[in-house]
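Re: Re: ligand-bound prediction request (bumping)

Still looking for help on this. To restate: I need the protein modeled with zinc ion bound, output as structure tokens. Inputs repeated here so nobody has to scroll up.
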Amino acid sequence: MKLVRFGEAGRERPGLVDAQGRVRDLSGLVPDITGTTLSSDALSRIRQTDPSSLPVAPAGQRLGACVGHVRNFIAIGLNYADHAAETGAAIPAEPIVFNKAPSCIVGPNDDVVIPRGSQKTDWEVELAIVIGERASYVGANEALDFVAGYCVCNDVSEREFQIERGGTWTKGKGCPTFGPLGPWLVTKDEISDPQNLSMWLDVNGERMQNGSTKTMIFNVAQIVSYVSHFMILEPGDVITTGTPPGVGMGMKPQRFLKAGDVVSLGIEGLGEQRQRVVAFEGNPADTSKSWKGH
Ligand code: ZN
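Reply:
Sorry for the wait, this slipped through. Here it is.
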């Protein structure tokens, strides 16, 4: 199934994409697409419903992030051997784990805001894992049982904040709008091999990233298992799994996003995102702005 959340920021409704590509309104069945609706039992109840019995959502609706009320938004750094090489970093012996602030999560086509004072806002197309069952100390052999599905994530990053301002990477990873998720949460039964998905990212129509989840250093099962040894993973938590080569930081000369740029990205089977890049203005805590929405 392809699950979506549609409607204005902060007031999204749950939906399901039918075989014709139309969004069907699931709000008669579940209140939202969140951790509580992602267990295998809850998903099988949705699966048993005939999509044609559900109302079609009005056309042209904004899509929100495909999962709401995310409690932990975890990311894996330098997880593609060829991306580690372009940044000049050694291949990590164990996964690099860092946090993205859940408040950075936005819809797949919402604007990306360049943070105040930023000179080095960058892009990263990534496969994100959405957790479906509470996971603690799980083995890699059973780890996929705890996964609900997958989505596209743009792990938007500010390289000066991340690397030049001291401490961990967190400062450059959780700025408002730095976590577009979606368009769909694709349940894992639709993705036969998460380690064989092509992925791409364009800036203003120019191909920047072109990769495959084949070249991950640590695979999805290893990542879920690994992270579960350091924290309890809750249903609805998101782990984004690293990016292939082609980020702006790795280019010679380096290239970063500016207001007016358009970023589009996608992963095979998981759909596409498109973000307009805008300058910082006003207060990102303003609830009338789209970046407030999960
Ligand atoms: Zn990343």
